[in-house]
Specification:
Two copies of one chain form a homodimer. The first copy, chain A, is α/β, with parallel strands linked by helices. In chain A, 24% of the residues lie in helices and 29% in strands. In chain A, the strands form two sheets. Chain A has a nine-stranded mixed β-sheet, sandwiched between helices. The first copy, chain A, has a two-stranded antiparallel ribbon with strand order 9-10.
Chain lengths: 261, 261
């Protein structure tokens, strides 16, 4: 396999026509053979959802120049699963899974709600190195130009060195500013959360509905987390795991509880 | 607050009319004041999805005897958010969040795809003790009778002793067998995964579609994990965290990578 160009599976959560995935596909073409399987419509906030009890559609798509691509009616996690177990069934499997570039931040607690990262985590579950890329700019026509060089550098590094077992990378880029990026930092997930507000309205039939809006609140004073890195114009790289076990809590519960036997 | 009966927020992912949530509500009524905010339709496999860019509906529901209840058009995570920030806005907040009882297993890697656990994790993010309960039996009319006593015992234990910061419990029950449950075990998430198969079909208009089906594959030989506990007729309790950082990978990447500065 080492003599071949790497096979790079690209997905995202903003949908196959978004500017972010075009930027990522163009960057990946410099590194290997690219296959795109991405949602046919935006899937933001889908977290690690999969399609259960409903059917999936998959259609070939010709919008990427010289790249085999499919659009899928499912979630980002569905896309990686169908790529691996249908499109590439009995064929060479991807050497890396990359997802994004997301239009909007996936730093801190947002990683939990991130469809972009769920595609990367699916790669990691299968033992394939995987990276989710996000730009901290929600605009549909966001400027991705400053992300291209570090996207290529980080992907190349992961292709060369691999990743620890059970780990996928959550990479976030600061919005394009007037100064160049300061560099790349390995970070932990910042301690922050969203505080929601529900905007109550009435439809033309007089029935109540809501818009959910969130305010991001950062409690973290450290300089080793992703929020600090983005605020200080660094690219943040958080290694993420899919073992959710709070291992340090196991002896505490074993000690505290009196209902175990 | 200690002189009052605890306020217990109940949600789930199978929808507000499922047998599992009825069982949970009846159990919780023995422990405190109950408020239900649950999806108005099944949300299985929704992972930690939230509703972004679409509206939400919330309607009062009278199906639970003597219990205030609302059905919401959103995901389990949406339900906990709207409970806290709209239904209970400026009011007393819940002392505990419980979710389930799910019709089907949420052991091992399934925790990632679990709407049941996303409701519990939302509780933990807000600093409220939280538990997701699941029965390893997918039947619509599953027998929950053996879960009631341990559901009450575990919830009571958490109300009394709290939980470590940033932790929610993922509790799974074996299916009802001919022998009584052996006990309750604190476990780690088993090392296992789903291997998908895509069943390709054609609709009456000749357009292709797929059903995704998964086979669960357990690689874990240990006796300290949730799969082992369920197979051996124990209740499994896995403490789960929402900090996804693979902390042990940070020094490895800092050492290995040559693109950092």
């Amino acid at each position: 396999m080492k003599d071949k160009r790497p096979l790079i599976l690209v997905s995202n959560d903003d949908g196959i026509t978004s500017k972010g995935i075009f930027t990522l596909v163009e960057a990946m073409k410099t590194l290997g053979e690219v296959l795109v399987v991405a949602p046919d419509s935006p899937q933001s906030g889908m977290g690690h959802a999969i399609t259960v009890g409903e059917t999936l559609r998959l259609e070939e798509n010709h919008i990427f120049d010289g790249v085999k691509a499919y659009q899928c009616s499912g979630t980002p996690a569905d896309c990686v699963k169908i790529a691996r177990h249908f499109v590439l069934k009995d064929k060479r499997q991807p050497d890396i899974v990359v997802s994004g570039i997301n239009h909007g931040s996936n730093t801190s607690i947002s990683v939990l709600y991130s469809g972009t990262m769920s595609a990367a985590i699916e790669g990691a579950i299968e033992g394939t190195p995987a990276i989710g890329f996000s730009l901290c700019d929600y605009a549909h026509d966001a400027d991705f130009s400053h992300t291209i060089e570090p996207v290529i550098a980080i992907t190349k590094q992961v292709l060369e060195k691999g990743l620890p077992k059970g780990v996928a990378l959550n990479v976030n880029f600061p919005p394009k500013r007037n100064e160049p990026l300061k560099g790349i930092r390995i970070c932990r997930q910042a301690n922050a959360k969203w505080v929601e507000e529900f905007d109550e309205r009435y439809d033309p039939n007089g029935r109540r509905y809501f818009w959910m809006a969130g305010n991001f609140v950062n409690f973290d004073k450290g300089e080793d987390n992703d929020e600090w890195a983005i605020a200080n114009n660094y690219v943040s790289v958080v290694p993420c795991q899919f073992d959710l076990t709070a291992h340090s809590a196991i002896p505490i519960l074993n000690e505290d509880w009196d209902i175990l036997r």
